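Methods — Computational structure assignment.
A single polypeptide chain was analysed. Its primary sequence is given first, followed by the predicted tertiary structure written as structure tokens.
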Amino acid sequence: MTLQRRVGQTPKTALFCRNHREYLEHAAEIGAQNPEKPITFRASTTWKSAQIAVGVHGPRRIYLVPIGGQGLVEYQATLEEVELYPEPNTRVTQELLENCLPETRDEGLWEEYGETVRTLYVISHCRRLASPFPFTALTKLFDSKPIDRNYGYSYAICYEYCPRCESSPCGC
């Protein structure tokens, strides 16, 4: 079964992602003041399946784990948009980059850092969770297995997490 078909048949999908704590904290501060304000982040990997998930069902929940943290989902937001292979100086790319955090706004598409931005992703409604949970409690849509503690990828499509029954997908 193709990912697009699987996502189409599974409306309660979400995304798991890692990012830097200071960026997540700042995004949560913005989210507390203005929840609908879009915030654009960059990724060096191509988030094709995330683009498919957003394209099929619209905005998705995104679970954010601080890089170098204790493996806990500490933040949650709404993934609004995913732009693959952004081109410098296009209107779309420039508009998305205008929504970056002030501390990363001048990074462009990382040309000067020797890396390539393959994905721009836009979140809103970012907030710190009152009860963080292990990202290993999330189940990947791809193979219906929990995300492994040593999972090396930057993101994964997963089932939404249910805090009531503390599982993904919901077992209530």
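Note: The chain has a mean pLDDT of 91.
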